[in-house]
Design goal:
14 helices, Rossmann fold, 2 domains
Length: about 375
């Protein structure tokens, strides 16, 4: 995976303060009530923690907008050990789960990485599955979306042990939870702002399948690979400028400076013109302002949905202003299209080391074999 030139550069690496490359914006959680037992805080993730109690494992999720506030708590117990009394704000969940419903691709990836994908018996919509999804060949899967919304009646018929899902910013499922009385498990990995924080939701997921040690081992490997690649990127002595995304309906949603994508660019030693913007999420820009700031970008990365990937010719036909970007003129545009490769939306949260690898080596190594991003075709 690592080329000789990078390895030799890494061997000469001295004087860099590596810890600075891993400074996290994530702050510790503020517990809002007294607890007993040991509360285990994740190393990177801000939005969950776990606690061993005499009754079982207490898993707590926190509100993305204010991590001092609890979103949902779950008490995990094994068969035959259900607690006699459970606080009304705590959801009891018998583990290990054997029949689960998943709403989104990220949960499929987290569960599959733990080798538990056979427990997935139903999904939101088969139409949303990536072509090379780990579930693509499964014909026994139920579906519980009506359009892109939860269908209460379908969920009641499917009767899963629990439902994994990622809520939207304004999504309120209180009525749904009361109506179905099936544990709704909040996967908040997409709300984390560090790539390793997102991956660390492996530990959250594993608690429900009673395989936490396996998750700890897997995450440690991912973290080490991520650190190794970051170290080599910082040692390369080059900082190619990068631009990201494509306009959508006239708006160019550029990663903000504290978003997970900006962290990946930083750790790949890429010069990202919006790295100093203090927001998380994305910035709503127009093409002209992006061109004015990033026309000399050496490399351009973006992701597409299902279907055919754009070509240089089709981009030029969409808007001739694209041809003014240096990356366009040199053909150094790299596209991730999960219809024509690995299931990016399932895997990228779990394996940020692979995304970092693509961002690090594609701009620098001609013979590198990418995981997700492919060089754009001319026509």
């Amino acid at each position: 995976m690592f080329s000789p030139s990078f390895l030799s550069a890494a061997a000469r690496w001295t004087g860099l303060t590596f810890a600075l490359a891993f400074t996290l914006a994530c702050q510790g959680h503020k517990n809002t009530e007294p607890t007993t037992g040991n509360v285990e805080k994740p190393a990177y993730a801000c939005l969950f923690d776990t606690q061993a109690t005499p009754q079982g494992i207490l898993v707590t999720t926190y509100q993305p907008a204010d991590t001092s506030k609890i979103l949902k708590r779950y008490l995990l117990y094994r068969e035959g050990h259900q607690p006699d009394t459970i606080p009304p704000d705590v959801v009891p969940v018998r583990i290990p789960l054997e029949n689960v419903a998943v709403a989104h691709s990220t949960q499929i990836g987290l569960i599959a990485a733990l080798g538990c994908e056979q427990s997935i018996r139903s999904i939101g919509s088969r139409a949303a599955l990536e072509r090379n999804s780990v579930l693509a060949e499964r014909e026994d899967l139920g579906e519980f979306f009506n359009g892109w919304q939860f269908d209460t009646e379908k969920l009641l018929v499917l009767s899963p042990d629990a439902v994994f899902f990622s809520p939207g910013r304004t999504e309120d499922i209180t009525t749904l939870e009361k109506g179905i009385r099936i544990p709704m498990l909040y996967d908040l990995s997409p709300w984390e702002n560090h790539p390793l924080a997102r991956s660390e939701w492996l530990k959250f997921t594993a608690e429900f399948f009673d395989c936490r040690a396996q998750a700890d081992s897997l995450f440690a490997q991912i973290e080490q690979r991520y650190r190794d690649i970051c170290q080599q990127a910082q040692a390369s002595g080059t900082r190619p400028q990068v631009v990201s995304s494509l306009p959508y309906q006239g708006v160019w949603y550029m990663p903000a400076g504290e978003s997970y994508k900006a962290v990946l660019f930083r750790d790949a030693a890429l010069d990202f013109p919006w790295a100093d913007t203090p927001q998380t999420g994305s910035l709503a820009l127009d093409l002209e302002s992006v061109l004015a700031r990033a026309w000399q970008a050496d490399v351009w990365f973006f992701e597409t949905g299902m279907g055919d990937s754009p070509t240089l010719k089709s981009l030029e036909e969409q808007n001739r202003l694209y041809t003014r970007f240096k990356a366009f003129r040199n053909g150094d545009i790299f596209i991730c299209n999960s219809d024509h490769g690995a299931p990016y939306f399932e895997q990228s949260i779990v394996y940020p080391d692979r995304v970092l690898s693509d961002f690090t080596y594609l701009p620098r190594e001609k013979d590198y074999r990418p995981y997700y991003y492919q060089r754009i075709e001319r026509q």
